[in-house]
Amino acid sequence: MDCPSEHGQMITEPLLSNRKGGIRTLPFILANEAFESLANYGLFPNLILYLTREYRIDAAKGAHVLFLLSSAINFTPILGAFLADTYVGRYRMIGFGCMASLLGMVLLWLTTFPEARPPPCVQFSYDCKSATTLQLLLLYTAFCFLAIGAGGIRSSSLAFGADQLGTSNSLEHARIRESFFSWYYGIVAASVFLGMTFVVYIQDNIGWMVGFGVPVVLMILSSLSFFVASPSYVKSKPKASWITGLAQVVVGSIRNRRIKLSSQATDKVDYHTTGSMLLVPSEKLRFLNKACIIRNPQEDLTPDGKASDPWSLCTVDQVEDLKALIKVIPIWSTGMLKSVNVSQGSFLVLQASTMNRHITSKFEVPAASFPSIVVLVITTWVVLYDRIIIPLVSKVRGKIVCLNLKQRMGIGILLSTISMAALAIAESFRRATAIKEGFPDNPNAELHISAMWLLPYFVLSGLAEAFNAIGQNEFFYTELPKSMSSVASTLQGLGLSAASLVSSFIVSAVRDFTKGEAQESWVSSNINKGHYDYYYWILTILSLVNFIYYLVCSKTYGPCRQEKWFNR
């Protein structure tokens, strides 16, 4: 399929002459995000081992806690973005996030002291003491501050960096802005990889106290990196959020629900802003059109032509923005269900911890570092696809070709389904090896089975993310109006948050339905007695159903804008 290209003219505008903002502030913003990502992603991979081994928390309950934490971390940036855009501004939101994250990491580090957690004992022995209420309160308080901090920083960091470059549409500004975005995502990816390898290695080989202390130091560096350049930042004032605009449409349509709509031409006037390309609303989801109908110009409009009550009268653009968002929700939901498979990292760490992870006789890969393979696969595939595969195929066919967005999303969901089947097969072999070697009661014993059995899952999962997650972001950006360009990242975060909640529900349901008086649940803390392979087969079946659901949603949606452009 042909891919579009854009051309422009060079317009030179210096970005270093302004007293505020400009290129000189970007390294501080990038350093802030780099250290924050390095600190956070160094903490989370090993938390399931910390909860099960140090706090005696059941594996299913521990996964439930981490699912809720993941959901909160992915949801709070949405709330943070709304507060930053509407009330407090991005600078204050990032600063608040830095302080909250630092406090959360300090509290989590304090849990490594002997008095703050249960006394050591042999796991699964009868004399093990559970954590006290105060000990759990300290742990969960740390988690709450980590989620709040993530909402403050991640909601505004990228947009705050873009603010420093101004709003000019010149080619020079556009190229610098694109370069900033590339550096931002590249640095985040590198930080995630280093966190999952370097910091996790310290936790495994030196201990929890030092391993949780390193993120504290990194978060201090993150905060200092941000605040040291405070006098040089452009600090935009908050304004109305797009969330407010969409809420006004819903409220306005409900308030005006008694207005009767007709398919015939009428004397009703629709409210629109000056210069808007949309003068009348579309016929789809017609109930929402009631929000933009002017009933009485003297009462509904001010002397300067604005709505006297924006919660009763909205513009046609606002109505169409909400309709566009509603239209993409079914496609969004398929990505959310796919993300359920990616959120199984806690159980994967438990599995990998029992397998042979030695690369050499003296070096052993930490169990929690295996998910970093996904990051490597995504990065590698993006480079291969963009720089080698597409140019090579285009050269053979004599024109620029590429997969369209819906094809990429569908391939990603299918690969995610296959990855879960590969994981189920790997776990069945791992469990059989544990029983064969006489370790059904010792889930911490190292088995004579290579952790490379998990490699197909991680590779396929990385490819699934490269196709589906990146494809979805581009799909939202191209399908939604330009005024809602910031919604793409918001929808992705909301999808990950919802996926964590769905994962938590599935784990709880499997545990409750499969556990008996004399029978371990499939998601038991003793993974050698449980049946995680059965649990993964359930996810495989659900993923296959989700793939069929995606095909239906894709067909129902019709051609996207990219396809329409190609068909011209």
UniProtKB/TrEMBL annotation:
Q: Name one GO molecular function term.
A: transmembrane transporter activity
Organism field:
Populus trichocarpa (Western balsam poplar)
- Where found? Membrane
Q: Is Metal-binding given among the entry's keywords?
A: no
Q: What processes does the entry annotate via GO biological process terms?
A: transmembrane transport
Sequence similarity: Belongs to the major facilitator superfamily. Proton-dependent oligopeptide transporter (POT/PTR) (TC 2.A.17) family.
Residues annotated as transmembrane: 63-84, 91-110, 137-162, 183-202, 208-229, 365-385, 405-426, 447-470, 490-513, 534-552
Q: What is this protein called in UniProt?
A: Protein NRT1/ PTR FAMILY 1.2-like
Among its keywords, does the record have Repeat? no
Instruction: List the taxonomic lineage.
Output: Eukaryota, Viridiplantae, Streptophyta, Embryophyta, Tracheophyta
Instruction: Name the membrane topology term.
Output: Multi-pass membrane protein
What's an example GO cellular component term for this entry? plasma membrane
Specify the domain of life of the species encoding this protein.
Eukaryota
Alphabetized InterPro entries for the sequence: MFS_trans_sf, POT_fam
- Which keywords describe this protein according to UniProt? Membrane, Transmembrane, Transmembrane helix
Taken from the record, one Pfam family name reads PTR2
